[in-house]
Known about the structure:
The chain is of the alpha/beta class and 149 residues long. Helix content is 35%, strand content 21%. α2 (43-54) packs parallel to α6 (135-147).
Amino acid sequence: xxxAGTQAPDFSLTDAHGETxxxxxxxKDGPAIVYFYPADFTPGCTKEACAIRDIxxxxxxxxxxxxxxxxxxGESHQRFAERYGLPFPLLCDPDKAVTKAYGLNGxxxxxxxxxxxxxxxxxxxxxAVLADINxxxxxxxxxxxxxxx
Length: 149
């Protein structure tokens, strides 16, 4: 997993609607939370996404935006977002190239790890957290980032 102080690798991924999203474009509006998760509709990933959904308005008020990244396709992301009312973009990384660039490829190359990054407007990772099972650790990380704004 990439450490704080590291330049975040730029990326170009599609969202649930087939629109291209780059990290450079995301950061034009200021710092962002980028979180990687294993899969749509799994219990842990659903709990994490819904927890972020529940504080999304507060995130925006602090000037932070959030983006989720996983290997599923746009159709899966769209169904996941609609089912749980997720107001933030989910980006598709089907070959896990971005997941690997951020050091979150799963053990033996299987699956993806759960990691969250706070990336400043210059593209530098301010802070990061890795917690594969402890979902609440990610929410606490995001709340800490909000409190620091």
